[in-house]
Specification:
It is built from ten helices and six strands, in the order E-H-E-H-E-H-E-H-E-H-E-H-H-H-H-H. It has about 220 residues and is an alpha/beta fold. It has two domains: about 120 residues, Rossmann fold, CATH 3.40.50.720; about 55 residues, no CATH class. A six-stranded parallel β-sheet has the order 3-2-1-4-5-6, sandwiched between helices. Helix 5 links the parallel strand 5 and strand 6. Helix 4 runs parallel beside helix 5. The N and C termini lie far apart (about 70 Å). The structure holds NADP nicotinamide-adenine-dinucleotide phosphate. The site of NADP nicotinamide-adenine-dinucleotide phosphate (NAP) has 20 residues, from loops.
């Protein structure tokens, strides 16, 4: 069997668990050389669940020639600097969605990887769901005829505790709210099935939660 690929995980927050489970499943092909967080408490908590070497040293990861790829699982506004840093060090990158918090910064992410000649992948796992794959096959085989219109609904919901985390859903850190953070998955799936957008128009409204009355 060829040598295992050595990779690093950067960011041990909410997004890391499914990735870490997949890396355990891929244990015969992949070795996690570093799991990085700046926070000792977070590293310790992660280590209770996953037996990967821990690190608080980004320079060491970037400078380790045996590491061929890095998974970047940090907030959107940090993606550009981290991609620039690891791409310049010759690492292939799997980046959590969205690419960045603005179009300009997202384009700079793509340019950084292209200039360094490394591969850049973005995590949009909904494309790989069984139902998505079945629909793609059906469309490709012409089973639905010519696509005249497509419609998506994204009725996802997050509790207030999710938004209580500093930065969550803010323009400054995440680049916006539900469209770029949650509905991005549904929009990506839609576009992957229909082809690119010709024109964009939007209407939105807001709702205000009505406070629950205390029982008399
Ligand atoms: N595909 C999906 O379904 C899915 C689901 C959830 C999230 N995501 C995406 O995953 C990314 C991370 O989201 P999350 O919810 O996991 O965030 P999170 O819970 O806030 O965790 C982010 C992690 O990155 C670390 N970090 C923050 N700034 C950093 C920096 N400048 N350099 C290095 N590390 C830094 C954090 O801090 P410490 O260093 O203090 O540990 C933490 O470990 C986002 O892009 C989000 O959109 C995707």
């Amino acid at each position: 069997m060829p040598d295992k690929r050595r990779i690093a995980i950067v960011g041990l927050g909410m997004a890391v668990t499914p990735h870490a489970r997949s890396l355990v499943d891929l244990g015969e092909r992949v070795e996690v050389a570093y799991a990085f967080s700046r926070s000792e408490a977070r590293r310790r908590a992660f280590n209770q669940r996953f037996d990967f070497p821990l690190s608080d040293d980004l320079e060491r990861i970037a400078g380790d020639d045996a590491v061929t790829a890095v998974m970047i699982l940090t907030p959107p506004d940090t993606h550009l600097e981290l991609v620039q840093r690891f791409a310049a060090a010759g690492k292939h990158i799997l980046l959590e969605k969205p690419l960045e918090r603005s179009t300009e910064r997202a384009e700079a992410v793509v340019r950084a990887a292209a200039a360094a000649g490394v591969r850049l992948g973005v995590v949009f796992q909904h494309r790989f769901r069984e139902a998505s794959q079945a629909l793609r096959a059906r469309l490709e085989q012409g089973g639905l005829g010519t696509l005249a219109a497509a419609n998506v609904i994204c009725p996802w919901w997050r509790p207030q505790s999710y938004y209580d985390e500093p930065g969550r859903g803010t323009l400054a850190r995440d680049g916006g709210g539900v469209l770029i953070t949650q509905a991005i998955h549904t929009l990506d799936l839609l576009l992957s099935l229909t082809g690119p957008v010709a024109e964009v128009a939007a209407i939105c409204g807001t709702t205000i939660a009505t406070p629950t009355r205390a029982p008399r």
